[in-house]
Amino acid sequence: MSIFGWMNDQFLRMTWLNDLVGQGVAGIGLDPASRLGGSVQFFVYDVVKIFLLLSVLIFAISYVRSHFPPERTRAILGGRSGLGANVLAALLGTLTPFCSCSSIPLFIGFTAAGLPLAITFSFLISSPLVDLASVILLASIFNWPIALAYVAVGLVVAVIGGTVIGKLGMENQVADFVRTVPVSGNVETMARTQRLAYARDQVIEIIHRVWLYVLIGVGIGAAIHNWIPQDTITALLGQDKWWAVPLATAVGIPMYADIFGTLPIAEALVGKGVGLGTVLAFMMAVTALSLPSMIMLKRVVRMPLLLTFICVVSAGILTIGFAFNEITHWFI
After folding, report:
1. InterPro entries, per this entry (predicted)?
2. Is the separation of the CB atoms in 276 and 270 below 8 Å?
3. Residues in CB range of 242: below 8 A, 6 or more apart
4. 152 to each of 70, 91, 114, how far by Cα in Å?
5. Residue 177: which residues within 8 A CB-CB, separation 6 or more?
6. DSSP letter string over 72-89?
7. Separation of alpha carbons 193 and 127, rounded Å
8. Residue 241 and residue 294 in contact, taking contact as beta carbons nearer than 8 Å
């Protein structure tokens, strides 16, 4: 365990980088213990760490993902039904795009291929909510129990959400054009060099897509961490406040960011004593229920199905938020 802890600190948390940045901040005449110096250290350390980890993780995960094009994923899910199919769809969602807007084209393809709504919605919820990169990044900022707990609850929301929507029999609430989208039956194959090139291109594309959200998220995190008094944060979002989880969920929905942009904010909030459930609710609302992705989803489903989706996922997020606030001490 001591070796594992050392590797976790050096390669994921990058404590050496934090120390190095702290020395650099002191070298330019700022005190790392002051508000300004601490903000600069927090910002530089988190930005460099997140982008370093993201580049490595996206490359590795994209290489794995190159073995699972949409046609193969549809083939794996095709002909399956029941709870096992929902679980499989949620798990496959962890290997796919890193935001909800890019998951919607896959949702259209799955629906056009005739997959049941239960399966497609389990996939749609899981895809932006849980991915392998977020697990590693969560572990780098918090710890492995929190990272694994986030994955577990995210998959539970995806499985239960998809199952409930499937039981409601709302197939007629999908836009008519979705059923007529051409579906390719060919499974793409790549040579090893092509997979490496694909992984490299994915790093460039995803970093280009998320860099601004990461910078904004780290900036907000630095402000919370160093400038907003803990008393103010706990008065608004403390574990003893019944409204903390609903408020965090409501604040997260209008935002549009990948999970990578929410992590520094979550880190700062936990550091200020905000309950783990409140933080998880905020992260899940941003990634699964962001307003831009709901606007895109409205183009492919009718309002009753969209509202059902929002209500089911919101209920899951709120339940998880309240539950985890009661057991925060297990993880921190």
Report:
1. DUF318, UPF0718_permease
2. yes
3. none
4. 24, 11, 28
5. none
6. HHHHHHTT--SHHHHHHH
7. 26
8. no
Cα dihedral across residues 305, 308, 309, 310: positive or negative: positive
| Residues whose CB falls within 8 Å of the CB of residue 141, separated by 6 or more in sequence, listed in order | 13, 263, 264, 266, 267
What's the whole-model pTM score?
0.77
Q: Which domain holds residue 286?
A: 2-330
Q: Strand, helix or coil at 174?
A: strand
Which stretches of 181-289 are DSSP H helices? 192-226, 230-237, 244-252, 259-271, 276-288
pLDDT tens digit string along 90-146?
A: 888 877 655 555 677 777 777 777 788 888 888 888 887 787 777 888 888 788 888
Cβ neighbors of 206 (< 8 A, separation 6 or more) are 54, 58, 98
Cα angle value 63/68/69 (rounded, 5°):
105
* DSSP-assigned letter for residue 208: H
Structure tokens, 246: 């609903």
Using a 10 angstrom Cβ sphere, with 0-12 exposed, 13-18 middle and 19 or more buried, the burial of residue 320 is: buried
pLDDT of residue 224: 87
State the residue for tokens 């008094």. 229
Whats the size of the chain, residue-wise? 332
Task: Give the span between the Cα atoms of 95 and 68, in whole angstroms.
Answer: 8
What is residue 139's predicted lDDT score, i.e. its pLDDT? Answer: 84
- Following DSSP, what letter does each residue of 288-325 receive, concatenated? HS-HHHHHHHHTTB-HHHHHHHHHHHHHHHHHHHHHHH
- Structure tokens belonging to residue 252: 């997260």
What lies within 8 Å, CB to CB, of 224 at 6+ separation is 233, 265, 268, 269, 272
Tokens of 184: 């390719």
Nearest-angstrom CA–CA distance, 28 and 35: 15
Lowest mean pLDDT among 148-152, 232-236, 248-252, 317-321: 232-236
Output the average pLDDT for the chain.
Answer: 82
Q: Which two three-digit tokens encode residue 236?
A: 């608004």
The one-letter amino acid code at 194 reads: Q
Task: Report the greatest alpha carbon distance in the chain.
Answer: 65
